[in-house]
């Protein structure tokens, strides 16, 4: 496993993150346990801020909260000077509970409900990223009822297929997101928005996918969108002052992943936008990017306790842990690959090969295939790296498993930022019809 962020191995041979011994963390907080490296998160935030806003003042970095969101995470993002993108009432509510500056909140989503729209308008968020014409009409109507004006970006589908898993491609024409650029749909939507009295068109948005390593994809997206901005201005006479190019910057998960530097990414995007502005003799729009995974992904590690071992001679050795697809569905969803090490034997030679199985009642609940490890035994602690993005966010209660706790580690201190669910949490929303209660009493009486 590649050691990233503040990861080290101490004299006991234990994995250490943020100055905290992971074996001790497992003992204190239990497993499965999400461990977030605060210093690493802040380093990534600073790299984005300095590479974009610091070097190019007419730009903004907003954190894609769907990667990982908790009130404490909102506090970090605010302190580091980034904005926040939300895609639901729940994410917006979390931001509001954190007292995040609402003017720096962008609201995404392809099917925002009337209740979510009202909530966002009441909070005076900075921008709505409008996905379709139905939403335009809905937002315009509700804003009118509330005597509000909504600042919007219109999401465009630019027709760019990034080289990534098909489920996380979003820029191609055949996508549930955005208005298609190539067939005139996007231009019709822009003209419609300009005619709605309670909407203020500020700019355009596009997002071509996630876990992207080829920076040429971002360059191409910037070129296409700048050419389209010039076309919009020529056809409508309206200047587009903001261009949101989405996120999707890839990170290291396992051998073979080679992400570029954030600075290189920023330089390619910003220089492309500036070059096209000169070419078309238009003003350089404010450029917005939306990193999520690349801020928290590699900063998260999940700790598990090893349980049963099933050795099939000549075939495979299965090692089961006390979590699985309920706390990390990505291998099952995307065939995502991860690296791991035995945290309490981090310095020992890896002379065995095993496959890591989850405890869910699914044959597909496999976290890692063919992992090199020392000889393992029940009670060992397994650390799976790069689980900071889309793991806690996508965690479920499948098999009525409780969602893990999240701890924030920094300079030897470990702070609980999300408590572990309890069995009582699992049933707190269950409602038993009165007839069942009566039947139960009759059964007991017999």
From TrEMBL:
Active site: 361 (proton donor)
Family assignment from sequence similarity: Belongs to the Orn/Lys/Arg decarboxylase class-II family. LysA subfamily.
HAMAP family: LysA
Keyword set includes Amino-acid biosynthesis: yes
Pfam family, one: Orn_Arg_deC_N
Assigned EC number: 4.1.1.20
Organism from which the protein derives: Thermincola potens (strain JR)
Top EC category: lyase
Top-rank taxon: Bacteria
InterPro entries, A to Z: Ala_racemase/Decarboxylase_C (IPR009006), DAP_deCOOHase_LysA (IPR002986), De-COase2_C (IPR022643), De-COase2_CS (IPR022657), De-COase2_N (IPR022644), Orn/DAP/Arg_de-COase (IPR000183), PLP-binding_barrel (IPR029066)
GO biological process: lysine biosynthetic process via diaminopimelate
Positions of substrate binding: 293, 330, 334, 362, 390
PTM-bearing positions, type N6-(pyridoxal phosphate)lysine: 66
Protein name listed in UniProt: Diaminopimelate decarboxylase
Pathway: Amino-acid biosynthesis; L-lysine biosynthesis via DAP pathway; L-lysine from DL-2,6-diaminopimelate: step 1/1
Role according to the record: Specifically catalyzes the decarboxylation of meso-diaminopimelate (meso-DAP) to L-lysine.
Cofactor(s) named in the record: pyridoxal 5'-phosphate
Keyword Chloroplast: no
Gene Ontology terms, MF aspect: diaminopimelate decarboxylase activity; pyridoxal phosphate binding
Positions bound to pyridoxal 5'-phosphate: 248, 290-293, 390
Orn/DAP/Arg decarboxylase 2 C-terminal domain sequence ranges: 37-388
Reaction catalysed by this enzyme: meso-2,6-diaminopimelate + H(+) = L-lysine + CO2
Domain Orn/DAP/Arg decarboxylase 2 N-terminal: 47-296
Quaternary structure and interacting proteins, as annotated: Homodimer.
